[in-house]
Amino acid sequence: MAVMTDDRHAETPLRTGLLFALASATAFGLSGSLARGLLDAGWSAGAIVLVRLSLGALVVAPLAVRALRGRWGALRRRSGFILLFGALPVAGAQFGYFSAVQRMDVGPALLIEYTAPAAVVVWLWLRHGERPRTLTVTGAGLAAVGLVLVLDLLSGADLAPLGVFWALFAMVGAATYFVLAAKPRPDLPPVALAGAGLTAGALVLGALGIVGLLPMDTSTASPSYALGGVPWWLPLVGLGVITAGFAYCTGIAASRRLGSRLSSFVALLEVVAGVTFAWLLLDQLPGPLQLVGGMLIILSCVLSSFLWCDVANKYVIISVVVLIWLGALGFLDDYLKVVRRRPEGLVGRYKLIGQGALGALLGAYILFYPLSSTAAPNWTGVPFFARTHLVIPAMLYIPWVMFIMMGTSNAVNLSDGLDGLAAGLTSIAASTFGIFAYLIGNTKFATYLGITYLAGAGELTVFLVALVGALLGTAAVGAIRIAGGARP
Fold first, then answer.
1. Alpha-carbon distance 412 to 421, whole Å?
2. Measured between alpha carbons, how far is 458 from 124 in angstroms, rounded to an integer?
3. I need a labelling partner for 75 at 20 to 30 A (CA). Which of 38, 119, 191, 304 fits?
4. Of 223, 301, 317, whose CA–CA distance to 266 is shortest?
């Protein structure tokens, strides 16, 4: 195989790479649910993958031609690589996954395929001597536990030997995708590689179908989903445009920026997206254990991301700690309601104790270990008044932080009675805070607007934008479920 990418030299900003990786994982996660409807309607796995790759190639072709800018020699020089990329990571992985789903439960098939990040870590270790750190191993372990819970394997599953074989084949294809896509190739832009790979994959599958080695069964029967029947061509268009063209373009761009190891770990979110789309399109509602698994997968991605992030940024660290603390309180409340069948959930006074303790610890830390050298920790800006600060006495600062923490937390709880209200209000607030975080962290804007400059505070914008995206996604899920006549 060609020389492997060294993740330590992965170029371009981390933020953009993470956004591309999340978009790609979400798009790929839609493929299983769309394909399942077609499989049930009489389509074969080979026919679905062939149409998917062909449509994806047509969609990406104009963009690929523009990106190449007449450098057709790059395609000739890289013809062997493009053929390998199209045959194994593009066509092979999807065909293996769809074939596995035909013979075994979707859960075990996804779990086996998404041992790919561990395979990438082992490859980097054996081939390039990049021994994984303890945090990487911990993240991989948490991801494995999370996947077991998300896929609901504890209830028992049918592990057909041939299905296991195809799932392992899909895992090899997925691991190869992360390895090959991560290597920088200046003469072959990500969009061009996606277009060429999709075309090569479609040609390989087409050839196998022509010689009779690959069944190509089709049907004009309407696939059935949770929201009702749809025309047979509609899921095919979604598979081609969204789960092929868009997914591969953003996925390759992410791998170029993040490297093979990190991009493969972030891609674990495809499983969460897959479970979510299965809920929406196939009415497979996730249970409590699956929700726990989702939390573990997110945690594993956070841990893995911190390997390549500036962990010295105190603003981000504090935000993550607060998120996990309050998330744990929320999880305990839901656990008591759903699993233990206690309608009241966590008793109110215990919620207040948990919120108040977090506020006290946070206030004490900020007071005794200031986050910025340009402003006193007990300063707070006065809205609409430039260069004006309110100085809170030190003895009142910790109670004030406790009040803010308890007030904002319970404000969200109180607004959670109507569908989308809490998500909508919190999205507005988080968006506003994100804008101000960027302005405060930029010395030019802060000076011009007369607000206190806090070095490094701009990093909070990324955190808050991610929060807004998650909230809007939650609100969209509720809206779609209501529109379909189902209970949210």
1. 9
2. 33
3. 119
4. 301
In sequence order, the 6+-apart residues with CB closer than 8 A to the CB of 400 are: 363, 392
Please tell me the distance from the alpha carbon of residue 375 to that of residue 367, in angstroms, as a whole number: 12
Rounded Cα distance, 57 and 61, in Å: 6
3: its two tokens: 């020389």
Q: Which residue has the tokens 């996990």?
A: 324
Tell me the C-alpha distance between 427 and 47, whole Å: 42
How far is the C-alpha of 272 from the C-alpha of 192, rounded, in Å? 29
Question: In sequence order, what are the beta bridge partners of 380?
Answer: 390
To which residue do tokens 């932080």 refer? 401
Say whether 28 sits in a helix, a strand or coil: helix
pLDDT mean across residues, the chain = 75
Cα angle 368, 371, 372 (rounded to 5 degrees) comes to: 115
User: And the tokens for 62?
Assistant: 């104009």
Residue type, 89: P
Domain ranges for the chain: 12-309, 310-379+397-415, 418-488
The answer to whether 108 touches 153, Cβ cutoff 8 Å, is yes
Tokens matching residue 474: 């939650």
User: Do the Cβ atoms of 5 and 263 come closer than 8 Å?
Assistant: no
Give residue-wise pLDDT tens across range 120-147. 777 777 777 766 665 566 656 655 655 5
Would the pLDDT of 338 be above 60?
Answer: yes
Tell me the pLDDT tens digit for each residue of 8-49: 344 445 667 778 888 888 888 888 888 888 988 999 988 999
98: nearest Cα among 34, 152, 155: 34
- The tens digit of pLDDT for each residue in 187-221 reads 888 888 888 999 999 999 899 889 888 889 999 99
Predicted TM-score (pTM) of this structure: 0.55
Looking up tokens 């001597």, which residue turns up?
129
